[in-house]
Amino acid sequence: MSDTAISSLPQYDTREIRAPGNESIGFATAGNVRHRARLSGMNPNYWYPAEWASRLKPGEHVETSFWSAPIALFRTEAGELGAIENRCPHRHLPLTMGKVTGCNLVCAYHGWAFGRDGRLQSVHHDQFGRALPRVGVRTYPVRERYGLIWIFPGDPALAEQVPLPVIANAEGQDRWARIEFDFTWKSHHSMVIDNLCNLTHLYVHGDLVPFDKTWMTHSRLHGETLEMVWKHTFRPSIASPLFNLFLDRSRVDGASQTRSIYKYPYHASDQGGARAINLMLPLSADATRVFTLYYWRTIGVPLMSDGWRLAMMERMVAPLFRPGTVEIYRQ
Q1: How confident is the model at residue 134 (pLDDT cuts 50, 70, 90)?
Q2: Average pLDDT over the chain, rounded to whole?
Q3: Contact at 8 Å (CB) between 290 and 185?
Q4: Cβ(49)–Cβ(149) under 8 Å?
Q5: HEC-encoded secondary structure of the chain
Q6: Are 306 and 185 in contact (CB under 8 A)?
Q7: CA dist., res. 72 & res. 114, Å (int)
Q8: Average pLDDT over residues 292-321
Q9: CB of 105 within 8 A of CB of 82?
Q10: Residues in a beta bridge with 213
Q11: pLDDT surpasses 60 at 21
Q12: Model-level pTM?
């Protein structure tokens, strides 16, 4: 090939892509923005769900990660939450191989105990007259709300400035009935978000959904929020009367409407009387855990108090929807 032919080819700026922890995860060209986005991680300066609160009892611990950074979650015997780097600085064993003792997470190898502040509190061997080593591990701000344990994997100084997502009708006397579940997909988080936002894929769920045709009628990007409105025609089903209680229907054409909202880094969909909140935890470049909270409004029943209506929704109606809803997300 001649020098002239070579100089006429498109010139791309090949750059190394690095994860939030500064580790190299591949290369992409400046001319391929979409590919570069696929290789990037989520902004760590937000609150991310890490585990269901009910799965972490006092004196227990679990392991998780954020973009391949290992994290140990533990609850002290007094019930206080801790989130620290899941690596003992002594011999680099995962701290979750150990146990919770009192207020500390204790390494299984030599009994080095670390508190919620990440500092070494004690060791289980002879110190030969020397002072306790001044070592520690990274800590993560941690909170508990909506039945979830949240971590802030970014700059700890920003944790108090960044709010948790607001979930309407999730708490208090006006709360809606809900089910909760999670799946871990072997996929980059952006692929999961694409799937949640693009509702033309409802075709794949067949009879599990009451919709026939789906099309987008509106989309708008403002700030970090992408809002889309989808319309659906209905397919006759034996469950139609039940679906009709919760799905929003247009007064013009009788179709159902779904508002899909992606407000970075959280996703929600609203169908009138049913809402789904999908919360991503990017475990690594090719694995994403998604926590889903699905809510249904309380059905108005004559002569029944608000408390009884909510109890009916939580104990009878929501469980009826659970198997099909979970199967849709599994697919």
Answers
A1: confident
A2: 82
A3: yes
A4: yes
A5: CCHHHHHCCCCCCEEEEECCCCCEEEEEECCCHHHHHHHCCCCCCCCEEEEEHHHCCCCCEEEEEECCEEEEEEECCCCCEEEEECCCCCCCCCHHHCEEECCEEECCCCCCEECCCCEEEECCCCCCCCCCCCCECCECCEEEECCEEEECCCCHHHCCCCCCCCCCCCCCCCCCEEEEEEEEECCCHHHHHHHHHCHHHHHHHHHHCCEEEEEEEEEEEECCEEEEEEEEEECCCCCHHHHHCCECECCCCCCEEEEEEEECCEEEEECECEEEEEEEEEEECCEEEEEEEEEECCCCCCCCCHHHHHHHHHHHHHHHHHHHHHHHHHC
A6: no
A7: 11
A8: 74
A9: yes
A10: none
A11: no
A12: 0.83
Task: Tell me the β-bridge partners of 63.
Answer: 72
Angle ∠(160,166,168) on CA atoms, nearest 5: 155
CA 296 and chain centroid, separation: 20
**Rounded Cα–Cα distance for residues 136 and 180 (Å):** 35
Of 227, 237, 244, nearest to 206 by C-alpha is 237
> What's the chain's length in residues?
331
Alpha carbon distance 61, 73 (integer Å): 5
pLDDT recorded at residue 3: 39
Among residues 119, 331, 118, the alpha carbon closest in space to that of 205 is found at 331
| Separation of CA 162 from chain center | 16
Q: Report residue 276 as tokens.
A: 């789904």
Cα angle for residues 42, 48, 54 (degrees, 5° grid): 150
User: In this structure, is the dihedral angle defined by the CA atoms of residues 17, 23, 26 and 27, taken in order, positive or negative?
Assistant: positive
Contact (Cβ atoms closer than 8 angstroms) between residue 259 and residue 216: no
Other CB atoms closer than 10 Å to residue 178's CB: what's the count?
21
User: How distant is the alpha carbon of residue 55 from its chain centre?
Assistant: 16
**Which residue in 104, 113, 117 sits closest to 75, CA to CA?**
104
| 265 cis-preceded (ω within 30 degrees of 0) | yes
